[in-house]
User: Which sequence fits this backbone?
């Protein structure tokens, strides 16, 4: 197979939809400040998500019988990229739309789908991802949280870490052990966990800027009914790996710093110096190519292929791009980064500098992605 | 999806390139030899006509698929002016001029070179100097020139004409690029018969520069694919400390970066091909040339690092590809030139016009 060939994205006419989304965002976000926009897909606003749901822009590709809209992956892509480019606060519905919903569609029971998917598409039901733990980051198969079968269900004990927006979410997709201690991949399963279940404690963790988005989630003798098992017992690893292709190739993997690029262009004005023009031109060229790669992967996902390797390539290239924008911007505009600044460039620069380290950690670290790519090349 | 015809063509061309172009031929070409047998084989297959319409002898393939042959030629470091001839034939055909057969090249390739045509004795006088013309010493040159007195039969912009100048009609100062591909200066003071000159609809000298950038991008994508394959293979073959060096994580991470650059260049090449097929929009071609050029530098450095001293020898084939990449990235405009062009356009679009510019490109 030609690993570096990315098929052309499907040629779907999406311009009417794009115009509709732009008009919606122009109105909804009219007063949103650049520094808030620069939160990108970490911005959380339940009310906004409900409006997006009302527009039919959550679960766009899902079957209508579950509240979906049966639109194409490329149409969904347009909505996502327009939201990100505008710095819309999409975090509330993001995880469910991107991975939890598709996971339920793939392995959930009819009852799980019927009771939850329509609420997701309405923008009223939010999810968080319970994979990482104190002793299990990159080595996800090393999770220790364990669900033990009991009469009528399971009892869970353990700790999940870095769980983004667990404090606002209704459900967690929990990845944990269900098999013997010597089984690695085989002994894991996924559960659909109602976060209001007794025994679950959610504690905030401040990030380096003092902001609260991720959490520690402790499970103490938490009883989960048998109906909360997601997919097959012992199939957790395969299910999680399937989720990752969806998680790694979307436009959020190269647009997280886009607001800073916009403010950079604003600060440079209509006639940038040769040096500044070349730098901005270079970033724009990278953006065009990343967008092409990412849309191509969206097309492959639509065709039912499993572009795990291509998704890793996109995420790795995307993180480099997102992370170099602040370094380039600060060399072109004389300004100190300051979150308190009334100058948009300074405030956005500050926010971006404080967040870029996470871009090559979350969703699989740079080194892990490169390991996956190397395996794809036949080196491991 | 590629059409069946295109797949057959790609397969046949791959076989031909595999057979005809080995290190021996590449070394011969580096020493200045013209590979006539190989050229004949390429011409017999009809490849130089791949970009012309079917009525003019082309395959009738979608343009994007025909341009993929240039990527293939890049992947084999084909030491012949194939891309140049393909483009030149296309320009001749679109100007309604006869296709002469044989190797062709294009001029001017540098944006600051000016060639002019003026009417003389029922024919034309072509004057001016074109620098660094690929294969100028052996190929007939398809010149795009401004006409001082266009008359009634003016081209689209009133002044752009295409002219076919037989090989050997210019005062030639030979030079080469890093891969020793001919890049010659041609000084014209040349009388041409009326039937060798015609208005060039659509393609002006400035667009020639962009078309050249597009084909170099596509060729770089091919060369980068080859560099990735060679480097991966070497990492699996070469052992140190009792195991293949490809088992070391540091080497694996290098190769993953190389793969990312090759993938980006491949996508950029595809963007360039589509832009050419859809009429030659400047912004995507500029982005493609810039991105491929940047990938070329990063990838070549990694490839040489992984190949160790062996890859630094003339005997090993890696340099045929890396030297082409180091040359091609600056031909028809380097990252600086194209970056400035894009950056100025972004400046004009303004902060709030940036995203619409990106999605429209
Ligand atoms: C902002 C943010 C939000 C997050 N949200 C969530 C969430 O909602 N849900 C969730 O489950 N998780 C979440 N995570 C966790 C994320 O998935 C992990 O950070 C990631 O998997 C890496 O694990 P770790 O942080 O424990 O680092 P480690 O795995 O300890 O890695 C530390 C360093 O060692 C390197 N390393 C590790 N193993 C290898 C190896 N085999 N070869 C080479 N290098 C190696 C890593 O690349 C890294 O550089 C979030 C993280 C961040 C930063």
Assistant:
């Amino acid at each position: 197979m030609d690993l570096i060939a990315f098929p052309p994205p499907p040629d779907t006419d999406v311009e009417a939809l794009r115009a509709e989304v732009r008009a919606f965002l122009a109105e909804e976000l009219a007063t949103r400040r650049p520094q808030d926009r620069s939160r990108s897909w970490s911005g959380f606003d339940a009310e906004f998500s409900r409006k997006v749901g009302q527009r039919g822009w959550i679960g766009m590709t899902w079957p209508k019988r579950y509240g979906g809209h049966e639109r194409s992956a490329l149409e969904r892509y347009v909505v996502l990229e327009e939201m990100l480019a505008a710095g819309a606060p999409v975090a509330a519905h993001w995880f469910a739309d991107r991975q939890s919903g598709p996971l339920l569609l793939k392995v959930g029971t009819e009852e799980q789908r019927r009771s939850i998917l329509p609420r997701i598409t309405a923008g009223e039901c939010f999810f968080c991802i319970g994979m990482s733990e104190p002793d299990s980051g990159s080595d996800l198969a090393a999770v220790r949280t364990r669900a033990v079968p009991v009469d009528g269900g399971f009892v869970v004990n353990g700790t999940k870490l870095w769980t983004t927006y667990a404090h606002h979410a209704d459900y967690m997709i929990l990845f944990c052990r269900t098999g013997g201690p010597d089984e690695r991949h085989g002994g894991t399963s996924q559960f659909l966990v109602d976060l209001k279940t007794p025994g679950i404690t959610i504690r905030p963790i401040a990030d380096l800027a003092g902001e609260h988005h991720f959490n520690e989630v402790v499970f103490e003798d938490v009883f989960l009914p048998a109906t909360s098992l997601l997919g097959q017992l012992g199939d957790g690893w395969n299910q999680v790996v399937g989720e990752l292709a969806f998680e790694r190739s979307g436009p959020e993997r190269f647009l997280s710093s886009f607001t800073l690029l916009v403010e950079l262009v604003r600060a440079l004005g209509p006639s940038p110096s040769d040096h500044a023009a070349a730098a901005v031109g270079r970033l724009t060229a990278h953006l065009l190519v990343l967008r092409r790669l990412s849309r191509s992967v969206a097309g492959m996902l639509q065709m039912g292929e499993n572009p795990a390797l291509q998704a890793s390539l996109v995420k790795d290239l995307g993180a480099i791009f997102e992370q170099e924008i602040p370094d380039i911007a600060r060399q072109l505009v004389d300004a100190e980064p300051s979150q308190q600044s009334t100058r948009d460039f300074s405030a956005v620069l500050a926010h971006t500098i404080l967040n870029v380290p996470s871009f090559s950690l979350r969703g699989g670290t740079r080194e892990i992605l490169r390991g996956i790519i190397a395996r794809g090349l036949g080196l491991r | 999806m590629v059409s069946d015809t295109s797949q057959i063509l790609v397969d046949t061309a791959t076989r031909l390139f595999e057979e005809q172009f080995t290190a021996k031929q590449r070394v011969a070409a580096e020493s200045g030899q013209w590979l006539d047998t190989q050229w004949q084989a390429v011409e017999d297959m009809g490849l130089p006509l791949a970009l012309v319409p079917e009525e003019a002898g082309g395959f009738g393939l979608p343009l994007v698929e025909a341009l993929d042959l240039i990527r293939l030629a890049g992947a084999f470091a084909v030491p012949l002016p194939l891309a140049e001839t393909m483009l030149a034939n296309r320009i001749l055909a679109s100007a309604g001029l006869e296709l002469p057969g044989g190797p062709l090249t294009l001029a001017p390739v540098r944006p600051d070179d000016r060639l002019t045509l003026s009417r003389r004795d029922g024919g034309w006088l072509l004057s001016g100097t074109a620098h660094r013309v690929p294969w100028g010493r052996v190929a007939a040159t398809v010149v795009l020139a401004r006409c001082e007195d266009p008359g009634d039969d003016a081209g689209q912009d009133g002044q752009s004409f295409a002219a076919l100048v037989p090989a050997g009609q210019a005062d030639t100062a030979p030079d080469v690029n890093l891969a020793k591909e001919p890049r010659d200066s041609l000084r014209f003071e040349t009388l041409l018969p009326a039937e060798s000159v015609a208005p060039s609809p659509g393609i002006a000298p400035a667009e020639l520069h962009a078309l050249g950038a597009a084909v170099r991008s596509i060729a770089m994508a091919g060369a980068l694919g080859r560099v990735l394959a060679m480097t991966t293979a070497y990492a699996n073959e070469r052992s140190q400390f009792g195991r293949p060096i490809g088992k070391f994580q540091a080497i694996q991470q290098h190769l993953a970066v190389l793969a990312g650059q090759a993938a980006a260049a491949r996508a950029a090449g595809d963007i360039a091909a589509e832009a050419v097929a859809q009429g030659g929009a400047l912004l995507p071609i500029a982005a493609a040339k810039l991105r491929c050029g940047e990938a070329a530098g990063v990838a070549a450095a990694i490839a040489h690092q992984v190949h160790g001293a062996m890859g630094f020898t003339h005997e090993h084939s890696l340099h045929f590809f890396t030297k082409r990449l180091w040359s091609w990235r600056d031909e028809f405009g380097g990252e600086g030139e194209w970056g400035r062009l894009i950056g100025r356009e972004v400046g004009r679009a303004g902060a709030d016009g940036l995203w619409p510019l990106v999605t429209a490109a």
In short: Residues 244 and 277 of chain A are 37 Å apart (CA to CA).
